[in-house]
Amino acid sequence: MNQEQLTAIVRDGRGLVDLWEVSPIRLEDNAAHTEALIDALFPGNPLLCCGKNNSDFNTYSREEWRGKLAAQQLIVPSPMTARIGRTKKGKESAHALETTAARRFLVIEFDCGGVDEHAALLLYLAARAPLAIVVHSGNKSLHGWFYCAGQAEERLQRFMRYAVSLGADRTTWTRSQFVRMPDGLRDNGKRQAVYFFNPALIK
Known about the structure:
This protein is of the alpha+beta class. It has a single domain, classed as DNA primase, PRIM domain (Alpha-Beta Complex), CATH 3.90.920. Strand 4 and strand 5 form a beta hairpin. Helices cover 27% and strands 20% of the residues. The strands form three sheets. It has a four-stranded antiparallel beta sheet with strand order 2-1-3-9.
């Protein structure tokens, strides 16, 4: 990890309040906005893999999920190509890498430090890639969704390696990795609030 650069970014960067203030759209009331957010992030009626936890999940079409997403905790940040696939162990599952479509979003998550540090790092990375939405985990971290549909994997790998050098979690590189549902409900009862949303750059 490049601790020197990480320290400089956090020292000179902006925090969670700044992230909120520069958001093109602010979700200011206490209602769940999950349905509208997913409509913007995944237009049309794609297959989406979502779940309440890592063992209670399914893959349904967007319309089949309608009205149920605010109660979900997790989502794969790319559409699925089929409802059921096979895991690496050969087991049939609604959550499988082989049935995860091409990347639509690359999610960057920082676990070390506090949310102000995470916000500073995501804003720094947003100068290098299109940041679509930032979701609070409902615990200690922020998830930044970077829109990457159609981008070459080599370019995305470079971006991911750079984010990891600043302390990002490597696991979100896996296309089928579950991440936090925007404005979904964490198992601790806390809503996974959205602090930044820029739907204009999503195609």
